[in-house]
Amino acid sequence: MRVTTWLAGWAGGGATAVALLFLGAGTATATTPSPAPSASPALPCRTAPQTPAPSSTPPTAPGTPTVVNVTLNQVHLSWAASVDPHGVACYYVYENRNGTAVRVATFQPAVTEGRIYLSFPPRYVASEVHHLYVVAVDTKGEVSAPSGTVAVTIYNDLPPVPGSCEVKYTSWPWSAGMSTNIRITNTGSATFTDWQLAFSFADPGQRVTSGWSATWSQTASAVTAVAQPWNKDLAPGQSLLIGFQGTHTGANPPPEAFRFNGVACAQP
């Protein structure tokens, strides 16, 4: 369920609004041009009855929104006003999600900047890009062309920066089997929580058969290890040791790359 409300206030001669919304997680993919607005969004503008037929002149397109600042998942946007002879009734902020227009906020006609809340990325995804644009609706119900699109990146909490983890992979093979230890060290300044390690085997014959200190799974060559309740937090400077037993068909090369909660890790 999506609930959207707006609250407007004025300071320093300019209008600023706050739009509050609760969204499910989703993935936004940039497309050009911006898709047309949805025909049946929630919280429509208040417009005059369309009898007789509405004006055939829609508002001018709002200016491409600019990002004033981002705090966690709160985004402060600003855009240039639309012009319409009948007056602007409201502005809609839309998100382009894989080519589908999803309305995320409604602002009063005098408001040309405001704050909205976007969804955090899904679990174990370090960041997610949202593509936002604005349309105007006049008092007769005419809808403007969409503005240009601005991309906003939302991160999961305060993520460790790239290079804030180190992985040491040590494997001992025999005939058609192997035993492998993986030491993961947090070299950054933020705690990894509910961690997940991801890597891909370099040889298609390598398989995980059992493991310890993590929940292990494998799809094709892609392997994931998910934290246990007792070791789910890895504080700065700490290390943890996990491992697995496996099989191979003659070659047992180490993986080329490791990602820890989506962060690329260094290898000594």
Give the helix level as a range of percent. under 10%
Topology as a string of helices (H) and strands (E): EEEEEEEEEEEEEEEEEEEE
Mean pLDDT across every amino acid position: 79
Number of strands: 20
N-to-C span: 47 Å
**Low-confidence parts, pLDDT < 50 over ≥5 residues?**
1-42
Q: What's the Cα radius of gyration?
A: 25 Å
Query: What is the number of helical segments per DSSP (H or I, 4+ residues)?
Result: 0
In percent, how much strand structure appears in the residues?
over 45%
Domain Fibronectin type-III: 61-157
Keywords: Carbohydrate metabolism, Glycosidase, Hydrolase, Polysaccharide degradation, Signal
Biased composition (Pro residues): 51-62
Domain CBM2: 158-268
Summarize the structure.
The chain has 268 residues and is mainly β. It is 0% helix and 47% strand. The chain is built from no helices and 20 strands.
Description:
Residues 61-157 form the Fibronectin type-III domain. Pfam families: CBM_2. With 268 residues, the chain is mainly β. Helix content is 0%, strand content 47%. The chain has strands spanning 4-11, 14-21, 66-71, 74-78, 88-97, 100-107, 113-117, 127-138, 150-155, 165-174, 177-186, 192-193, 196-200, 207-212, 215-219, 222-226, 233-234, 239-247, 258-260, 263-264. The strands form five sheets. The protein has a five-stranded mixed sheet, with no helix packed on it.
